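Page 47, continued from p. 46.
Same chain as before, 669 aa.
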Amino acid sequence: MQSESVYHQPYGSYAYPINQDTLFLQLRAKKDEIEKAYVMHDGKFNWSEDSPRNRVKLEKYCSDKFFDYYRVVITSETKRFRYYFFLDDGCEILYYTEYGLQEDLPSKKEGFEYQNICEKDIFKVPAWVENAVIYQIFPERFANGNPDLSPEETKDWSDREPESDSFYGGDLEGIINNLDYIDDLGVDAIYLTPVFPSSSNHKYNVRDYKAIDPEFGDLETVKELVNKAHQRGMKVIFDAVFNHSSDEFFAFKDLREKGTESDYTDWYYYDQLPIKEKPTLDFSKLMKLFSELRDGGIDFRTLQEEVLAKYNIDYEELNDYEEEFLKLITERFKSDSRLQKMSDKQLWLLMRNDAEIKELMGPNYTTFANGAWFMPKLKTANAEVRNYLLDVARFWIEEVGIDGWRLDVADEVDQFFWREFRKVVKQADPEAYIVGETWKDATRWLKGDQFDGVMNYIFSEAVLDFFCRREIDAKSFNHRLTRVKVNYKSPAQRASLNLIGSHDTPRALTIAENDKRRLSLAVAFQMTYLGPPMIYYGDEVGIAGGDDPDCRRPMIWDEDKQDQDLLDWFKKLIRLRQENSALRTGKVEVVRVNSVRGIYAFTRVEADNRLLVLFNNDSENNQVEFSLDELPFNVDKVIDLISECEYQVADGQLKLGLNSYSIQIIKEK
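Result:
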């Protein structure tokens, strides 16, 4: 037995309470090595001299490239546990204790201990979340319900080429007017990107945290939206931007204007005071200037006297450092032919990362991302900032009745703040949902004291790589999903949003190279796997788009231009999810992974609702055969809920024919 592969710890995702007297345990071992595994356990103070009174078999429930993972639940009326593991690899029997592997029967002192299940340590998430289908809306691009609110120079809704500073006029009335559409799709909750006053179309630079952006509506409009959503049984989730504010937020404005005399000197992070004035040359203007400089033939005087005027840029209004920057970049374009061949995005990245340019054009304070002048980072370690933001979190739950918060840039805000945030939110509404934006492993935020779940980008990238990009095989796909199973506690898995697209990513259809078969499989997996699926508005009608801002195209409302087949596919899958509790809350067990043939299959079981979900992610048709010993069925006939075809079980075997790029959801007949 390979001792260095065997692993357990009596805390974290390897040991945690799931109710007042039940403990979940996880054990890791070398792949395909252990034949039998048991946990031997008893109460911490009930251990007999010879051995513990209880033995429970461990279940192997997932694997990755190197390891198998086993799980078990044990109970004790005393809520105090002492335990060790019995491992048999077919050649030897060893005991795994707090001191490691050993041949001798462990003594009492050698066992692992989980000292006591305390009620407050039980990870609880809102009961409604794992049953929900969640629909993300970018309000500025969903629907224009009140043209009187639209900003000046609004683009025509039919324009499919949004720019970073484009406005289309979407608002809250537009969402209200289309609640029937959302309800008909089968959605249970709506997640709105920020709706607070802001100068941008995305509203992530918040100017006032206790108001609604006047281009979207007002407080009464959002109350109407929430009330009408609730009448349809739909929840509403807001977006909390607590990592940073707008540079027009009252505290930052005061700091910029008063410097050391400001009452808000400890609300932000900066190198020195005074705060540096942001440049008048924004992204759009710089890209226009770069287009003129690309031929390398323009000197600074020509730029100053002719080009700036062409784009209505007043040279006299430029900051001193902007003048130095223009001189520098003009010389760079003349002397370095590589710049002339760079795209706008490449030039922008150069500006953001070049040390000399950053010194000239970068802010002297910490911001969101890399030098985003209009998004200064808030100092949540300061009690004044913390209390202000916690009051905001409480306000929208109590005043408007929202049902949860999505937390923007959650992994850059201190964990102390999120622990306080959870207390405030759960006091206001114990069933309010808290979901953090993290793009990597989120284990440290998912202990039960901060978030209920996260935007599950580990899931997202695995699904996109397997079904849409077709860059990984079934085995690698399974290994990726194992990361979430092993690292996240079960409540967090059931409360993390399974997305395949968002306002921050290219559209799934575009990633799939406009191949609807690939997208359809990705959506099917999203709707049948463990965890609530999140739909990014418009994916269901075939909206395409690359990186931001292209992924934020306006919603298609002309039914003749909507992909009705795709819309019907979304509706069908959501209906099947609603009709089958196993697809929402059922146990998941992977039963077939075939990388050569692109086959991936798992079962989902919830009481008498027993399903086999089977994917053929291959360009060829495939035949698949299962023994009933592998499946939760005990009947002689089953039905595919997708095609409604029936299959006969013969001699304990179930044979299924799968078309290329297809899914079957098999249920007992």
